[in-house]
């Protein structure tokens, strides 16, 4: 038999976080692909996290938007051809701009877009429509870093590289659960610790997985980062640990910044009081920082997502400028970017207060960009930032909105109010690759099918300024098109054909690169002019390259700021004096807790991609609220029970997780669930609209909140090879399973009602069997096809729910014999059935039971043994802290 050769692998880049890992995609003949890490990519050298490893499970087309659609008068969506959809968008934009002016329209973009998509969208709005009302979900992610960089350096320049993590003697992780959110980089840090003795400090209100194994953990009070680093600056001055040669030669404003820092936290004792830390821990951190030469301070969302995030960023930068620890090997402040192309979006002016190529809105810069683009209506002032933009939609002053590749109806603060505001729009356009997200269902009038990862071609830039290619390895499905193509077609319909004469992503990239060098002559940090002459073939072959970059030149070691050379008028960095202010709004008797939001290990954003992977849904399948035991006791909450979390702007119903790692007075909730994946679990509904005055970034870490118990009489689950429609009266969380769909359920509806619901959900051509016991609160209904379990709905009393993990394993296993079917439906169905527990290692699908058994039998005694025997923890390593916890618990005497 002749076997056709497998298609060759394609080098591309992961579409998740800002680490920018290279992957090898090996497409199969069924429309999928096998995914492995690219050992040649300098960001990851072959490593992938759990999310990257599961990318092959997310390529199905079942929930894709595949054709243009227009909403009809009755609210339904009708499929149309591209021409009427594009004509409707262009005609609507033209009408509104002619009548109300360019500031009546807005674009809301995404760090999921490729640089080429981003560039074309910004060019259309800022150069040709004539408004700077273009912002991006990076405003929720990295805007405070951008503002801090620009205040200190005169430019949005990241001075560090990943190689600095290898060379550092001390890595300080601030507001970053790196082990879960940037696991490949965390493995780099832990390897440096093991091989070279690198120490690392974790500064975070929560004791996260990242804090496991840290040399020092500082459980800082929420919002107190500025006080900590102000105190550190004062300490460095008092102990003569400053680099005055660097300060005098390359900076200004030191005296004022130091005086302001002393006002905030003049010494160790004052710092301890302001941060809620012990004096001993503060003194230890200050001494460690002061005496260690090679220090890298990595910071992420815990710093950025704050009403005072920009001051936090500048307080961190201040201590590096003051010690000359910047721009040199193994030292510097380092922002860990949240999204795969948040950096690329910043390069093309994706934020409302930027123009392309790291330029702003000064007359000189707007003139320069306008001349390069030959733009008839170049925007001359900043536009509205994300929160302000959506508030303008709420007021009715913005009448048209185009959303690309993001889900603001879930992610924005006051999400429910913003969702209602979208219905006021005269024109609401969404470019998406999924049909059912919350923004689409919020009343989008025109849906434009966009190409997804694997189908589109372009570049992304990671946290260390490294440009990498995303390449096509799948055909475009249906009528989907790349975002740059969609925007270009609109621009042509608006009369701008000459300026938007692009035939490929390579055409866009060449123009983007040329603009970066236009009248630059070293005045701006971002310069990739050396890539402007790439041929199509060279663009296709482009290896990962760090900017500033020239084609064919190895400039990997070029560093910013080692010898000064900042992008301010005098070439000197600015120390920024922190402003004295309360860390956050006061809590009160009504809202006595502080709500912190963030990610879990195996999910991404609103789960439109990761939610398709059974592996990624196995670790944390339900939305939770994490709370300290003392606060749980006061609120009368039980671990594994339910709570209603309420703030001034909204509420959510979440499963309770009681944790000693959660600081008293605070709660933590993951951001991922939406109306499509859970009931009453949209966290954006609850978040305050407070924003940083410099960056406009919303405070997603400190909303005053309260919790109260939520009681359900029944709990259970549903499993089906088809998609399940949850009942409107039940709480649910959706979780992908192998070959189907799963719902975790909680309800107060009686068993009889669930029997009726179950019958309606079962396929007509299946054999239906059931066991109902109203008195005991038991419902077990199953549908079999050819001996295989096709669907089931199981409920039991809340104190003894049926086993989700065990039954999901059985559902995924396939065919059952007659005796197994009878036991399955009886109330003995859970008895004796092995519950393998949750997945601990998502990369290799290793469950709790396998780890427990290895420890109990003595074949494994530590993490290394478990890795050798079961492979758990040997890929991305994000499960290693959890493995350590299991080992420690197993070692405790019974």
Task: Describe this structure as you would to a colleague.
This protein has 894 residues and is an alpha/beta fold. The protein is built from 30 helices and 34 strands. The protein has a 7-stranded mixed β-sheet, with helices on both faces. It has a 6-stranded mixed beta barrel with strand order 21-25-22-24-23-26. Helix 8 packs across helix 10.
- What shape does the CA trace take? globular
Percent helix: 25-40%
How much is the average pLDDT? 92
The biggest beta sheet reads:
7 strands, mixed
Alpha-carbon distance between the termini? 60 Å
Note the total helix count. Answer: 30
The secondary structure category is alpha/beta
Q: Using only CA atoms, what is the Rg?
A: 27 Å
Detail the poorly predicted runs.
none
Number of strands: 34
Q: Order the strands across the largest sheet as they lie in space.
A: 5-4-16-15-14-6-7
Beta strand % = 15-25%
Write the layout of secondary structure elements.
Layout: E1 10-13, E2 22-27, E3 33-37, H1 50-53, E4 69-71, E5 77-79, H2 82-100, E6 105-109, H3 115-129, E7 134-136, H4 143-153, H5 163-167, E8 170-174, H6 178-181, H7 183-196, E9 199-203, E10 216-218, H8 225-238, H9 244-250, E11 251-252, H10 254-264, H11 268-275, H12 279-291, E12 295-299, H13 301-304, H14 309-322, E13 332-335, H15 342-347, H16 363-373, H17 386-395, E14 400-404, H18 408-411, H19 415-422, E15 427-432, H20 438-441, E16 446-449, E17 458-461, E18 466-470, H21 483-493, H22 505-517, H23 536-541, E19 545-546, E20 573-574, E21 593-598, E22 624-627, H24 629-635, E23 642-646, E24 651-658, E25 666-670, E26 703-710, E27 714-720, E28 731-737, E29 740-747, H25 751-761, E30 767-773, E31 778-785, E32 788-797, H26 804-813, H27 818-825, E33 839-841, E34 846-847, H28 848-856, H29 863-870, H30 880-891
Parallel strand pairs: 6-7, 6-14, 8-9, 8-12, 9-10, 11-20, 12-13, 14-15, 15-16, 21-25, 22-24
Antiparallel strand pairs: 1-2, 2-3, 4-5, 4-16, 17-18, 18-19, 21-26, 22-25, 23-24, 23-26, 27-29, 27-32, 28-29, 30-31, 31-32, 33-34
Helix pairs in contact: 2-21, 3-21, 3-22, 4-14, 8-10, 8-11, 8-12, 8-14, 11-12, 17-19, 28-30
